[in-house]
Amino acid sequence: MSKPSKEVLDALQKAYCMEVETVINYLANALDLEGVRADHIKQTLLSDIQ
To answer: What is the pLDDT of residues 2-26, one digit of tens each?
Structure first.
């Protein structure tokens, strides 16, 4: 594999891993709601799902 192709693939792999990490963080924040604004956020998420 040529060097530019390897660099592109490495960059794409890194970007993909970062996107997966973002999704995991969003899911964790959506599932473990606590605090003052938790009820409002829960209701908003429920309305978005339905």
So the answer is: 778 999 999 999 999 999 999 988 8
Per-residue CA distances from 24 to 4, 27, 33, 34, 42 (Å): 30, 5, 15, 18, 18
Put residue 35 in one of left, alpha, beta given phi > 0 → left and psi -120 to 50 → alpha.
left
Whole-angstrom distance, CA of residue 15 vs CA of residue 23: 13
Note the residue count of the chain. Answer: 50
Give the domain ranges of the chain: 3-49
For 50, which DSSP code?
A: -
Kindly report whether the global pTM for this prediction surpasses the value 0.90: no
